[in-house]
Design brief:
The protein has four helices and 31 strands. The protein is mostly beta strands. Strands 1, 4, 5, 6, 7, 8, 9, 10, 11, 12, 13 and 14 form a twelve-stranded antiparallel sheet that branches. Strands 15, 16, 17, 18, 21, 22, 23, 30 and 31 form a nine-stranded antiparallel sheet that branches.
Amino acid sequence: MPDTMYVTFEESWDAKSRTGGRALSHEEARVRDAAGLPYAVIYRVPGREVPLGARMVAWRAGVLDCWAYDEHGRRTAETELQMRTDPGQLLIRRLLVRRYPDGQTGEFDVHCPRTVVELSAGGTARISHQPEGMRGASLEARLTVADEHLWTARPRFDEWPSLPVADTLPDWVAAELVAAEQASAGSGWRREPSRLLGSTDLDRVFRPGTHIGGVRVLDAVPCGSVRVPTGVLAVDCPQSGDEEPRITVAVPPGTYPVEAASVEVGDRGYRSYEELVAVRLRISDDPVAVWEMALGPGDDTLRLSTGAAFGFDTDAAMGAFGDADAWQDLRGLLERAARPGSPEADEIASTGAGVHLDGGSLGADMAVFYTGGDGVYPVWVGRSASGEIVCVHVDTGLDLDLDA
């Protein structure tokens, strides 16, 4: 750290926006520290707008969170520490270190190399190393860790200036990774495929006549088209109370058709019935070479357990495609149009997946689809062999084993 580094104190800290609450004097911060009330320690150098790092202190809650930043304001490291039975000791609960190949790479870019270490008081560590970022495979292991690597002394208030946040891996972790790269089978390390990329051929549900687990795929049903003038597609529940859509996908500005996939299900002696299983917004007719999970703000595949996925949440059993910039206006129009006798009622038309909303003068539309219930629904982006987006896909109903 530079010799000219100094610290300031604030009431709070937002790690993403790099903004805090009210500035605190040295004595005000000392009083809050003694009382266990939250406050932030910000590390700065003259002439640099972005801080070197920040610590959010909350002794009453028994936690200490730390962040390191590069000159572009990107988080290069994040650390979570927790107080346990000994108030003078902190468990290094989680450490995440990122590396950026250049100044243009975004903070959560899927290509960004990173390593996460999660420690338990019982003496074990889970290490996940992604040298190629979220799209690449990860090197993972669960290891027994020496007690000295688990704990650190709780800093006294007057020690903050001499304890700048670090953006490097501990020596013992770096040594483990070097050994892992050279390790033979049975060493406890394993290579895991990317959790961002799907291994399933989702297009199977759009191939009429295909049999999947005892059901037969029917012809895809057109569900209108969606104008996306800004080139940012939103996918979320239209009744979500969030100000911004949960999932957004960058696509070329344009108008794109929406299709619904259904299957015929036999009912053991009763008449068969149709069930909606997926919807997609089709960008082009090129074949899909790879499926990639769409991520929302803060989503990190390092936090995903095997088989889990991020997505949008609904407690209204529905989702929708729409232009992100017009999302709130489209939601408002949808709500008004659904009211009996509304003058906007003609803007809604039923489809094979739900309803289609013509946004008219908004220059954008919304395609609403029904899901099989409440819960989290992953959004998958199909890419061509050249990396271009082919379609955006959401499974909506029957849980089919597409790998069978």
